[in-house]
Write a structure and sequence with these properties.
mainly alpha, 245 residues, 10 helices, 63% helix, globular, two-stranded parallel ribbon, disordered N terminus
């Protein structure tokens, strides 16, 4: 996923971030999109289980075996992504204008909950600003480096495998967290338009559904693998690191 090893242990600092620009329509859409991912994917609303509830069920079944608990969480969410992808692709061109936006929200909500669950099972507190930003950055893979830099955070200690785990245990300024969240939302929404081949294939009913299920399941598995790499087991008692504003 474009990760690089680093042994740089210098404190995390912030650099001069670009001055905030007036929000346009896409900016507001990105903020609303991320808000829904956190509300449904991490906190849970109504019948939608929160990440904490997913973790509680996995721990109840597997006890202290974190690896098995994570494996079950990943398996369940990969299957859920495949079902969602199939339902979106099945109708072909006729239902696509309506179903594609819903599938995008559904897919990344499932992915957000899966990553947050993996992080929590590995010992991270996903209610903090830094941890939530780390969970969201996991969704964009190698693009995380670029978004971290644009948020004004020094890359000195946020590069290489595990950089998001380090971010997850930092006390991040609210402004930096908001910038990262909006940037992730923007990146996810704009990347949807670049999947021309998969969109074209999904124009074909039934066959499109099969391809859609396979692509969504594969992408979910890649996100899971990335999360497992980034969120190594946290050392009990590890203290958080403050990020200077």
């Amino acid at each position: 996923m474009g990760l690089f090893d680093s042994k740089d242990d210098r404190p995390v600092t912030t650099t001069s971030a670009p001055a905030p620009q007036p929000d346009g329509a896409l900016d507001k859409m990105a903020q609303a999109f991320i808000g829904r991912l956190m509300n449904f994917g991490i906190d849970g609303i109504g019948p939608v289980d929160s990440a904490a509830e997913v973790v509680a069920k996995a721990r109840k079944k597997h006890g202290d075996n974190v690896d098995k608990a994570i494996q079950e969480v990943v398996s369940d969410h990969v299957k859920a992504a495949g079902v969602g992808g199939f339902l979106t692709g099945f109708g072909g061109l006729v239902t696509m204008p309506v179903s594609l936006p819903a599938n995008v929200l559904e897919f990344y909500t499932i992915a957000t909950r899966m990553v947050a669950s993996i992080a929590e099972l590995r010992g991270y507190e996903v209610k903090s600003e830094g941890a939530r930003a780390a969970v969201l950055l996991t969704l964009v893979g190698a693009d995380a480096d670029d978004l971290i830099a644009k948020a004004g955070l020094s890359a000195a200690n946020l590069t290489g495998s595990g950089r998001l785990a380090r971010l997850a245990v930092t006390k991040m300024p609210k402004a930096a967290g908001m910038m990262i969240n909006k940037a992730v939302g923007f990146r996810l929404l704009t990347s949807v338009g670049g999947k021309a081949l998969s969109r074209f294939i999904r124009f074909v009913p039934v066959a499109g559904g099969i391809v859609g299920a396979g692509l969504d399941g594969l992408l979910m598995k890649r996100i899971a693998d990335h999360a497992r790499t980034e969120f190594a087991a946290r050392v009990p008692g590890e203290e958080s690191t403050a990020i200077a504003e």
